Amino acid sequence: MRIFDPHIHMTSRTTDDYARMAEAGVQAVVEPAFWLGQPRTNPGSFTDYFDSIIGWEPFRASQFGIRHHATIALNPKEANDPRCRPVLDLLPRYLAKDGVVAVGEIGYDSMTPAEDEAFAAQLALALDHDLPALVHTPHRDKARGTQRSLDVIKESGIDPGRVVLDHLNEVTVAAARDAGVWAGFSIYPDTKMSPERMVAILREYGPERVLVNSAADWGKSDPLLTAVTAAKMLANGFSEDDVDRVLWRNPVEFYAQSGRLDLSGSAGDSPTFAGNSILRGGS
Ligand SMILES: [Zn+2]
Fold first, then answer.
1. What is the tens place of the pLDDT at every residue in 210-245?
2. By CB atoms within 10 Å of each CB, which of 154, 160, 221, 226 scores lowest?
3. Residues 137-160: what's their mean pLDDT?
4. Confidence (pTM)
5. Is 280 inside any structural domain?
């Protein structure tokens, strides 16, 4: 089984996670830029983070045979902080880089005017840079947030086939399907979407334009829930080909629209990145 986790924040995960993911069949990941829990206080804090998710983190992943790409954006939550907004001017420099396969995560957190502005501005950047967009839907007031996100996406003029609307559930999936965007589902350990519920949604809506991710980060989450969902699909009558489609070919197709998805071999030939290795004890 080959798995592509299209949304996972590996910078907050350990090497044990990478090892377990590789063991479970995860061969590729996309790491969207997001907030870190601790509020950032200036744009320089973002640039170091962006450099890390397009430099050090792909190297770390490569040590486990996993391909790593990133998406770059000012996240919805920090779009509300005037100290962070100047990072919008720095984004074009990053959106031109090789390992960047989409603009994201963008969208709404609390649906404020500042979020409106950052969301629209970054969809425009996606168009300018000919990149897909990864749009996060709010965890509170999700139905309204989803509809409003779809309105903003439509107004932007971006092709809906180049947008994934993420963190969907049973209530919001139909609107996303109708709008022609890709439907993203984040599988969580205790709350929100579970592997069982995901299988039920796949049964009802089919595997087309569906992306399944773990969205694992520094919060309570599990990077193996993509593999658990794949096993649940097989146990519930889906074929190996269905599983390969949802957990590999779909994310490949979506991010290949960037023209930058590189799944050839492993970048792990070099044991060091800028002179630093993931090893300890002087080797
Ligand atoms: Zn995320």
1. 999 999 999 999 999 999 999 999 999 999 999 999
2. 154
3. 95
4. 0.94
5. no
Residue 105 CA, ligand 1 centroid: distance in Å: 7
**Residue 151 falls within a domain, yes or no?**
yes
Q: Does 268 fall in a domain?
A: no
The owner of tokens 């269905």 is: 242
Tokens of 115: 């979020």
Interval between CA 278 and ligand 1 midpoint (Å)? 24
User: What is the span of the domain harbouring residue 88?
Assistant: 3-256
> How many A from CA of 282 to the centre of ligand 1?
34
Whether residue 283 lies inside any domain: the answer is no
How far is the centre of ligand 1, averaged over its atoms, from the C-alpha of 33 (Å)? 8
pLDDT of residue 178: 97
Total domains, the chain: 1
Q: How far is the CA of 281 from the centre of ligand 1 (A)?
A: 33
Residue 267 pLDDT = 46
CA of 283 to the centre of ligand 1 (A): 34
CATH code assigned at 97 = 3.20.20.140
Distance 135 CA to ligand 1 centre (A): 10
CA pair distance 178, 281, nearest whole angstrom: 55
